[in-house]
Amino acid sequence: MLSNLGDWRRTHDCGSLTEKNVGEEVLLMGWVQRRRDHGGVIFVDLRDREGITQIVMNESSPEARETGDAVRSEYVVAVKGKVVPRPEGMANPNLKTGAIDVVVSEIKILNQSLTPPFMIDEHTDAAEDVRLKYRYLDLRRPQLQHNIIMRHNLTRNIREYMWDNGFIDIETPFLTKSTPEGARDYLVPSRVNPGRFYALPQSPQMFKQLLMVGGYDKYFQIVRCFRDEDLRADRQPEFTQLDIEMSFIDRPDVMNLIEGLMERLFDRLLGIKVTRPFPTILYKDAMELYGHDAPDTRFGLHLKTINDIVADSGFKVFTDTVKNGGVVKAVNAEGAGKSFSRKDIDELAAFVESLGAKGLAYIKINEDGYQSPLIKFLGEETTASIVKSMNGRPGDIIFFGAGDKALVNLTMSKLRLKLGRMLGLIDDGRFDLVWVLEFPLLEWSQEDKRYVAVHHPFTSPMDEDIPLLKTDPASVRAKAYDLVLNGSEIGGGSIRIHRSDIQKEMFSLMGFSDEELKNRFGFFVDALKYGTPPHGGIAFGIDRIASIFAGADSIRDVIAFPKTQKATDLMCEAPNIVDDKQLKELSIKLDKMNI
User: Rounded to 5 degrees, what angle do the CA atoms 272, 142, 240 make?
Assistant: First the structure.
């Protein structure tokens, strides 16, 4: 029989009772995790977000035992009972409540449940698409609840830290103007302005800078952002960002603030003490040593460019690469020769080929010499020079990548990470934080035949590089900084351009005409003419930080209601069609041929 609460109210949650509560009369409510009938004595694991308490229905209350016969998994129940110690040798040390039981005197079934499509526990083997379809059930699982609570504690500590440091929490608009520069915008049609569209913000970038123009000095916001991009494995169309902006500061001030924040988060959430100041690496060195601007510094296996050694070798692939302006890079997989089979090497070759490489050359160093198809082309002398340059020793394998610089960096950086895993060099219990500094301000786009901003067009050049904007834009360094944790960029920012003349020159280098500039960014450039202070800021991906802190495999596991890789919500079936009346109100007519 289903019941209402009446005057029943919880005295405790399901994760708090211990031996200190023995003898107390308590009232618990929650979901039935599992039910076991041991010859007339019924045991039920009662679960809420705080944990599990074992409740017992026995001959002391025949009515409660009879009701207990009817309960099933995921029924919602309320119980009154007495806390008793478990019999000797029956305690469960893995549960906070494992030393006690609650012997039930009264029980109410508050609601029944259909049989769930998967087990509501940490061991479920249900496919992710099933879990996403029934996300409201998935959210009951202890692991998901741990992750969501971890995320809550993360954002709570962030807010407290920002408030303690004098920052003001200010909201910025969700309905704004489309300024296409980067990922595609999500567009929202305006019913009251037919034919015109809002855009959902990819970030509050211009608004937070305008708040600095407005004199608010220290701003922060934990804000939703939107990008209509081709999603990779661990991206979401809507994501959460910690957004920060400060006036009258320079790069060290931002870095010091953030190091204090990270120190607090690691201490309070993980019990880990981080060492300050965090190490720094220049962008050019990160690309050279790791092939990536978000390096995983927990292990070695550094990459090395060997153009100078192989430029005049007998191996045509290497010599042509150098002649055509490409790079040849090598990595020494130390000790791999002792454990890698030929099959392992073939699988590594297939891996880099899947990334776009044409193959994977290697030299295996044995006690009695070198083993490689390359040797007959390189010659003994060049081979020995390569091995010496890479500090090769017997038992090592040196792998090579050759070709376009961007492709080689991509494939070799991914290969380095894979080798690190295969060789057991990555300590998952270690957290390495590193600042990456001095990114290029601009890069040339062959596709667009113009310069594009490496970060965004409001990033300030290094002071000493400002004259190069007129003579050598590609060599200008940015006052930008990324914070990297274990090979993931968790935050990035820059000191901003606060002078309208430099901002206009930046837009000009990016190929914007005066008319395009006015249409896209006119209000912002005008604002810079009214006494804009020097300012800068940074933004952090809350989803990414939460997933790392929670030890989750995917950011979807720290988001309450995530989208799939195809940007769909399987639970509420979004996106979906709308009726013709709604489209007509918005002055929209669909091209049925393309749907």
Answer: 65
